[in-house]
Amino acid sequence: MYEEIFQYLQSQKGKNLALYDISGEKSLNDYVLIQHFTSVVENKKFAENFMQQFKIEVFPEGYNKGEWIVFDLDKVVVHSFILPMREKYNLDKLWQNKKVDIKNKK
User: Which of 19, 34, 90, 106 places its Cα 20 to 30 Å from the Cα of 8?
Assistant: First the structure.
């Protein structure tokens, strides 16, 4: 399922999309996708479109504030930030050794 989600995220206006393969970790998830937007309005709009695209009926964690929105989709987790929050929490550093080269995934 991550391929479909990944392709959808690539088609959106999110910035600096990163994919991490954490399948070897002690985690329930296999993949983490991280992106950011320039504003809360853009991030919330992305979340609404994502929910519609993937038929998600319950608003995700963080939607109300819109600064850090998390979709937990079983084996795939999507983190959608506004840039200051992405920089503050720096999840990219947490999984830096698990990063997948997405240039070859297009």
Answer: 90
Short-list 53, 67, 9, CA closest to 35: 9
In this prediction, residue 5 has a pLDDT band, given cuts at 50, 70 and 90, of very high
Write out pLDDT tens, residues 21-68: 888 766 677 889 999 999 999 999 999 999 999 999 999 999 999 999
What does residue 76 show for φ and ψ, rounded to 5 degrees? -130, 135
Distant-in-sequence, close-in-space partners of 94: CB < 8 Å, separation ≥ 6: none
Which parts of 25-97 are beta strand (E)?
A: 31-37, 68-73, 76-82
Local structure of 72: helix, strand or coil = strand
Q: 3-class SS at 106?
A: coil
- The amino acid at residue 11 is S
